[in-house]
Amino acid sequence: MFREITLGQYYPVDSVIHRLDPRVKLLGTLLFLISLFLVKSYTMYGVAAVFLAILIRLTNVPFKYMVRGLRGILILLLISVSFNLFLTPGTPVLTIGPLKMTQEGIAIATKMAVRLIMLVIGSTIMTLTTTPNELTDGLEKGLGVFKHIGVPVHEIAMMMSIALRFIPILVDETDKIMKAQQARGADFESGNILQRARAMVPILVPLFISAFRRANDLAMAMEARCYHGGEGRTKMKPLHYAGRDYAAYACIFIYFALFIGSRFLPLV
Fold first, then answer.
1. Is pLDDT of 25 > 90?
2. Which of 72, 116, 126, 155 could be stapled to 29 by a disulfide with Cβ–Cβ 3.0 to 4.6 Å?
3. If you ran DSSP here, which 8-state letter would residue 97 be given?
C-alpha cells in the first residue's frame, strides 16, 4: 500500500524535463497548480489535460509508475466526490433514500475529481524529474531576493529538501515494519475501516522511533561537518540557465496567460 506513494521519489532517466533548470520546474509547477483553480470551462480542462499529457510524454517516465501515486488519494477522492454528488442542491437525477444526486452535483464532482488528479500528477512530475539537491538549490536561488528582508531562505529550502528526501525512506521503513509484523501474525487487511485503523497503531511506535533516530543521526552528521546554515556556502553545481530553460519559460507563460484570458472569455 505504502509502496504506491511516488511523491518525493526521483526517477533517474534522461529527458528534456530532467535537464531543465529546477527553478523552471518549480515556477512551472506553481503556475500549473494555480491554473487549475482558474478553470471555469470544460474546454480549459481539456487544455490542461493536453498540456499535462505532453509533459508526461517528455519526462520519459513510465505512465503506470506516475499514476500509481493516485491510489494514495483514492479515499480522499471518493469522499470529495460523494459529498459533492449528494449534498449539492439542484435538479435531482437520482434519489437514494434521503440522498439526492443532482446535475449540478455531478458537474462539480467531476471538475473536483479531475482537478485533484491533475494536482497530484503535476506535483509528482516535479519530484520525479528533480533530485532533492536540485530542488533545494532551485528554491534557494529562486527565493534569494527575500534574504534581504531577513527570511531564512536557505534553511527553508533545506527543510523542504529533507522532508522530500525522507518520504521514500519512511515509506520503505513502513513497508519493512508491516512485513515483519505480518510474519508474526499481524493482520492489516481484514475487518472494517475502524478495525484496520486500529491494526495500524502498532506500526506507529517503531516508525516514530526510526524517524527520530534518523533525524538525530542526520543532525549529528551535519554538526560533524560544521554545518551552520547557508551563510558563505558555495555550490558544487551552480545553476545556470540554458536556451531550453528560456523556451520552457515562454511555454509556461503562454499557457498561464491562456488561462488568465479564459476567465474573461465565454468558453463552453
1. yes
2. 126
3. T
CA-CA distance, 45 to 235, in Å (whole number)?
40
CB contact at 8 A, 44 and 255:
no
Are 101 and 92 within 8 A, CB to CB? yes
pLDDT band at 1 (very low <50, low <70, confident <90, very high): very low
**First-to-last CA distance in the chain?**
39
pLDDT for 248 equals 94
Q: Which span out of 104-108, 149-153, 163-167 was modeled with the highest average pLDDT? A: 104-108
* Alpha carbon distances (Å) from 56 to 65, 124, 128: 11, 10, 11
Query: Cα(141)–Cα(217) distance, rounded to whole angstroms?
Result: 28
Question: Residue 75, Cα to own-chain centre: how many angstroms?
Answer: 16
Helix (H) or strand (E) holding 102: strand 99-102
Tell me which of 251 and 184 has the higher pLDDT.
251
Helix/strand/coil (H, E, C) string of 231-262?
CCCCCCCCCCCCHHHHHHHHHHHHHHHHHHHH
Give φ, ψ of 130 to 5 degrees: -135, 125
Whole-angstrom Cα distance, residue 121 to residue 7?
Answer: 9
Q: Which pLDDT score is estimated for 225? A: 82
- Find all residues with CB under 8 Å of 68, minimum gap 6, and list them: 4, 6
Task: Provide the residue count of the chain.
Answer: 268
Q: Give counts: helices (H), strands (E), the chain.
A: 10, 2
Amino acid letter for position 234: T
| β-bridge partners, 101 | 94
- Running DSSP on this structure, what letter comes out for residue 96? E
